[in-house]
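Dear colleague,

Thank you for sharing your sequence with our group. We've completed the structure prediction you requested, and as agreed, I am returning the results in plain text so they can be pasted directly into your records. Please verify that the sequence below matches your submission; if there's any discrepancy, let me know and we will rerun it promptly.
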Amino acid sequence: MKLFGYKLPMMSSLLIWAVLWEIVGQLDMTILLPPLSAILAKMIEIVPTTSFLSAFGVTARAFLVGTGFAVAIGIPVGVLMGKSVLIDRLLLPWVNMFLSAPLTALVPVLMVLFGIGEQTVIITTALFAIWIIVLDTRAGVKQISSSLVEMAHSFGASSFQAFFKIYIWAALPEILAGVRIGFIRAVKGVIIGQLLVSVVGFGRLFELYSANFLMEHFWALLLVLFFAAFTLAEGLGYLERKVDYYAASRAP
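Please find the predicted structure tokens below.
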């Protein structure tokens, strides 16, 4: 049995954790964990405020620009790596290194290179997202049947046409998988950037709430961020499932 597309056992699990959270919060065991009901009430209170909407706009702008750069650069680079053995050997070690590296440690370096401002936050966001997009795009292109590409060229398709009509469409399931995971990583990137670089947007609110021990505000903001990231991931996951049938076109 399903409700809103989710199995009831999953919703039951979330409900159990919510009840446990509420019980622990009502016991007043620690100031760091208020009751969930108080957090939800505080969420309803702060979301319509000017400070929240302003912070949301700053964070959303940095996120969208950063992920836009990650997609615009990551997909073509991934296609080139999937097509060319030489480019793949040159770039793959670096892509794997940056994917596994603690990118937070690079933020001070970015601050020195690009200054303290939104530009550095955007670059940090893009760096968190781009590497998995490159790798998943590369994996999708490598699975494309060579006969499909040869057929396109035999009908006179240019490299530009092959890029958009063969590689992008045939590798679309993997590309969307990379974009989905990249966007999730970018949420972490934009918050880390705003906390460490310029303390603006949601980063400023997190800093304000934690410094003043406004834990209901802090958890309310964190739940809003979690919900936004979850909604984004589920939306891209739904789109990813819808285009899975393109994978069949790669069969030899």
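Summary note from our side: The longest strand covers residues 2-3.

Kind regards,
the structure core
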